[in-house]
Amino acid sequence: MRLSLVFVSAFVCLAAYASLAKPVKGLLNPKPQPYDTPQRFVDIERLPIEGAKGNAVTYAVGYKLRPIGTDLFIGLSDLKARQGPQGLSVEAVSDAGAFATFTIPPNNERRGPLTFELLRGTDGQVLGNKVLADAEALAVDGRTGDHYIAFEGEPRVLRYRGADFRGAAERVPLQNLPSLPDNEGLEAMTLLMGEHGAASLLLGAESGGFWLCPLSTFNCAAIRGPKTPGFGYALVSLSALPDRPDDILALYRFYTPWTGPRTKLTHLRLEAGRLVWKGELLTIAPPMPYANYEGVSAIRTEVGYRLYIISDPIEEDEEYTLLLGFDWAFKE
């Protein structure tokens, strides 16, 4: 009987770690006050492309990114990537309450420009603590340039008009969202464009659940979605394809102290008011550069899409961020 209780206790502990799908070390040992200087760059180390066989996407590029002149670069939770004449441009939010932009030049330069803005609340003041500043998801309205940021600690969505991060934010008055567990709130969000330019936010919670929130009414409705892609996996990011808003990337994370992090990327489709699972695109596990990936973004290419995922380091002494790119030849 006693032995049975030991096995049951061990299973319960494992399930608890897996359901959290995130480490707690940073909560127990908070980092010191961050530093920041005007001279900021991102140091770019290009990674070897290997170990990605057997997936529906092709591992195309990998970067190990280290900040120079600041340590606000740690904790990036979501991203929006764009390809331009200056290279790969990335916007990202962090769970420390910062909005970052950086560029990876196309000519294999070792450094790229890096800028930061500290996120502000509806009173125009910088968000002052972890609970208020825990930004987890980013959505951008390409028509207006407005940026929507979802927060997990105190579940809410703030809008920054035209990417103005130095003024007061607007709280999006979303209705009919349920109460969410502490630190398992709004983890994933993407903007969907419907007919006649009608826009909606698709929200996902780490603890489970999806909601579709039209920006014309802010009246959110729960929608059915697929189960997680495996035991202990939790949703961390959603991103609609640039020209196919009903086709959505969903990123899931698994973590235990014994295995470390694992990541799965899936393809969902919004059909008849529900999210339908269309297939698994990618699993990241050794020997690939596995890490605590938290954000996904897609760029249209000539043959399909380039998918980027970004990591939020687990270990406190892990002073780099991983950015991986995968090519997907999209097929119906």
TrEMBL record:
UniProt KW keywords: Signal
InterPro entries in the cross-refs: Phytase-like_dom, UCP031900
Signal peptide annotation: 1-18
Matching Pfam families: Phytase-like (PF13449)
Keyword Repressor included in the entry's annotation: no
Superkingdom, taxonomy of origin: Bacteria
Residue ranges of every copy of the Phytase-like domain listed in the record: 73-312
Listed name of the protein: Phytase-like domain-containing protein
Annotated source species: Asticcacaulis endophyticus
